[in-house]
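Quality-control log, excerpt.
Job 1 of 2 completed; input and output follow.
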Amino acid sequence: MIDPGKLFHLEGGQQRRKLALTFGALERDVLGIAEKGTEYSFKNIPRVEYIKRVTEVLLRDPKLPESAAQELKALMNAEPVDEYRLCNIARNHLLALIGTFPAEWDLVIAPHASPTDENGVVRKREFYPGVCVYAEDIRSPFNIGSIFRSAEAMGAEKVFISPHCIDPNQPRAIRSGMGCIETMGWEQLALDQLPPDLPVFALETGGTDINEFKFPEKGICIIGSEELGVSPEALAKATYGRVTIPMKGLKASLNVGVAFGILMQKWVEYISK
């Protein structure tokens, strides 16, 4: 944590970036999930008072809209002060001033039960062995990043991508993936190169209702491209079956990343029973 007095002496973009990082660290500390070395450590001032002082630095920013300033002042003067909300609102106003979005800047890291090193950094992620996804010809970097993010969050072991899939190392994919592309195991393979020992099924229309589908304990789920869906060749490869998400809307259409997130939740639910 940086001394509020030092923050007062910074200017412009540098001050805003430091403030955004400080509010992010404070959010994690309030939630009890501060990363090692970033815990609140000022013994001569309670954390709530520190948060108020740092907020006062932001209130002096000439580019802060009056409506934002009034919102922050109301949160500062509340009894009791909602520390997490004040930090979160302040950080989001800062991100607006910087010209970026929360998802592009900072991910509030959830507590992990996984093994950590001496610095508290997670070195081994937990996952469901054999739970994998095959992304076939996904074209959007944002979609592939979202797929990696859902796969990592829900405990998939590995992501396979087809030869014509967007490169996960594309900058917008990395940004959308929020660090998950770097931590997830992944491999580029053709359909006929998929591991032969794992059952393969497809997420596609015209299949078994996802609420009735008997998910395998281990397997590979194929998800198709944004425009064409799962290819005929991939459907032929999916000998374990086809699963479908029932929908009531007129369009009956879901973004592939959203559909995959629903699929993963149902799969994990099923094998965790």
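Job 2 of 2 completed; input and output follow.
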Amino acid sequence: MKKICDFISRWMGVIVLLAGLFSLAFPAVFAPVEMRSINPMLGVIMFGMGLTLNPADFRVVLSRPKDILAGCALQFTIMPLIAWGLVKLFALPADLALGVILVGCCPGGTASNVITYLAKGDLALSVGMTAVSTLLAPLLTPLLTLLFAGTFVDVDTTAMLLSIVYVVIAPILGGFLVQRLLPQLTRRVVPYLPAFSSLMIAVVVAIIVSHTSEKLLNGGWLIVLVVALHNIFGLLAGFLGGTLLGLSLPKSAAISIEVGMQNSGLASSLATLHFATFPLAAIPGAIFSVWHNISGAIVARIYSSRINAA
């Protein structure tokens, strides 16, 4: 079983891609699953993240506040600005523009920790940034969405804040409490969580693609290009930002991956919950979930070779 889980974790990007392609070719398989089922699935993934947290992660935040706060500042400025710039450059329709902006305004994704580990980056910094950006998300994600998308859609910031608390913060806290109360059980479960989360993300992508397959086939390549550019520019800008701040190569690599890899599942969830009149708004998050795992595997190889050579 451990070998199977390791295989799933290592090939996460390929599995998510195959799930998306399968759902695109055979949308009827996942079409009966309602879009609102994405929210409890995301909550389960966040609960798993909570199981992996321990007091040492919070001590990292307190012992290295400058690095983590600098990384989070880059996270919540670079990605929304890149999203807004790409939306304007490609003159995207309102629903796709909203989806791209939602991805840009979300916190870092949990997959970034795995990619940072593979890249031989500063894993403690990566985990600290994911935790802090996730805790800041209930406030910053709605406000940034209002700032960048409020001119063409109505943004209910209070409802978005509560959704992030219910879907992200509460499950993480629940997982953390279970980890503290049942440490032996948690230790047995944790090794399987990356594989489980990968499969859940693949299912989420498949559900979203199945409900939007026709629109994707009729002009989806443009949004694929925009999503890929969003991620690539985020990775590059994050690394440049870390370098300009005088951080070491492992730290800059961690910030690059944290900035470039978003919690795109949350973006799709928010689009489904709060912007039902914009049905295509969930697509950029689904595509990002596929793409950033592929690009993450590539940059992990690049960074690890550079760090080994340094």
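Post-run check on job 2. The radius of gyration is 18 Å.
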